[in-house]
Design brief:
Elements: E1 2-7, H1 11-24, E2 28-35, E3 41-48, E4 51-59, H2 65-81, E5 88-92, H3 99-106, E6 114-123, H4 127-132, H5 152-162, E7 165-169, H6 175-183, E8 189-191, H7 199-203, H8 209-216, E9 233-239, H9 245-256, E10 260-266, E11 274-281, E12 284-292, E13 300-306, H10 311-322, H11 326-330, H12 344-347
Parallel strand pairs: 1-5, 1-6, 2-5, 6-7, 7-8
Antiparallel strand pairs: 2-3, 3-4, 9-13, 10-11, 10-13, 11-12
Helix pairs in contact: 2-3, 9-10
InterPro entries: CobW-like_C, P-loop_NTPase, Zn_Chap_cDPG_Synth
Domain CobW C-terminal: 232-323
Protein name: CobW C-terminal domain-containing protein
Length: 354
């Protein structure tokens, strides 16, 4: 039994797409999870083209996406897979859920069913504001649980970058469509609206979870580029040199602030064994020491997309100012041994062996 994970930040768009697919696929059902306000419970809905089949409250030990999938979605999918009336499942996790977490939790349990695809749907008419604006999920009442401090852009970008099929409601001949083309990888399929979706792209394949994760891995970022008629631009900022920790802090607002989508990796000379990630959207930036560098020194690379003409030069200049100078780089890493760790509050404690 094929299972497709359908995510969005707009429930109307998601429900429109799912309804269209239910009409096209005989025996398909939607397994939908909704957040119950002021509770750790979820509402589980099972729907078909004929209406609501089930409507139940699900109480969780912990209100998180992975718990919901593991504790309730897995047994529900197993049950549906043994029902001869069910031909396929469109799994709609709560609005703003990260599909990589959903698929990653479900993936080990595939036996009588399999993950066929991940689909993200967004409106190109609001895509610039949704992806690059400063709104948080809490401000739009879209957060998964209390304490979810993500921006709308962070949540939508995660859905867009992981999914192998992107459905662009409103078409792509707009500023939002142009931005989408800069952020979408060439191998990701694009459909211009729910009625343009091919069923085989949703239910006829096998989700490649590892390949989807690689698209989101900051170590492998690539600039996809795209049309520029509406003013969208992408910078590919690359250097063998690390960021100077103090100058990075001085320049971080100029480097990451504003209506930008920025992804990449960097390193700092006082912890040369660490590759740090940079994940920014809508003026919010998340950094962390995420990977070990191995035998070779890391490199620094940020891919930044924006729509404001003045932001490009500002970001490029801030990137250059944040790097070690040629003279500092020529001095090697020995001056950094035992140096004060200015980035510890963001990167965590430095490895004592470095």
């Amino acid at each position: 039994m094929p299972v497709s994970v359908v995510t969005a930040i707009d429930p109307v768009l998601r429900d429109s797409l799912v309804a269209s697919l239910l009409l096209d696929v005989e025996g398909a059902v939607e397994l939908r999870y909704e957040v119950t306000a002021d509770s750790s419970a979820l509402r589980r809905l099972l729907l078909s083209v004929d209406g609501v089949l089930e409507d139940d409250a699900v109480t969780l030990d912990h209100p998180c996406v992975s718990c919901a999938m593991r504790e309730d979605a897995v047994p529900t999918l197993d049950r549906l897979a043994h029902d001869p009336r069910t031909a396929a499942v469109l799994l709609a996790p709560p609005i703003s859920a990260d599909p990589s977490v959903v698929a990653g939790t479900l993936r080990p349990h595939q036996e009588t069913w399999h993950l066929a695809s991940a689909v993200a749907v967004l409106a190109t008419g609001t895509a610039v504001h949704d992806l690059l604006g400063a709104d948080t999920l809490a401000e739009r009442d879209l957060q998964w649980a209390d304490g979810d401090a993500r921006s709308v852009g962070e949540a939508l970008a995660a859905q867009l970058e992981y999914s192998d099929l992107v459905v662009a409601e409103g078409g792509i001949d707009s500023a939002g469509g142009e931005l989408l083309e800069h952020l979408r990888a060439p191998e990701q399929r694009l459909s211009e609206g729910p009625h343009d979706v091919e069923i085989g792209h949703v239910l006829g394949g096998q989700l490649d979870h590892l390949h989807a994760l690689r698209r989101r891995d900051m170590r492998y970022v690539e600039p996809y580029g795209g049309p520029t008629a509406h003013g969208t631009w992408t910078l590919d900022l690359t250097s063998a040199r690390p960021f100077h920790p103090e100058r990075l802090l001085e320049n971080i607002e100029a480097l990451g602030g504003g209506r930008l989508r920025a992804r990449g990796r960097f390193w700092v000379p006082d912890r040369p064994d660490s590759i740090c990630q940079w994940d920014g959207a809508g003026g919010q930036v998340s950094i962390g020491a995420v990977w070990k560098a191995g035998l070779d020194l890391p490199t620094t690379r940020l891919v930044v997309t924006g729509v404001e003409p003045a932001d490009g030069p500002r970001v490029r200049d801030a990137f250059g100012r944040s790097l070690l100078t040629s003279r500092e780089w020529a001095a090697g890493l020995s001056p950094w041994l035992g140096a004060e760790d200015h980035l510890a509050p963001w990167l965590g404690a430095r490895d004592a062996n470095v």
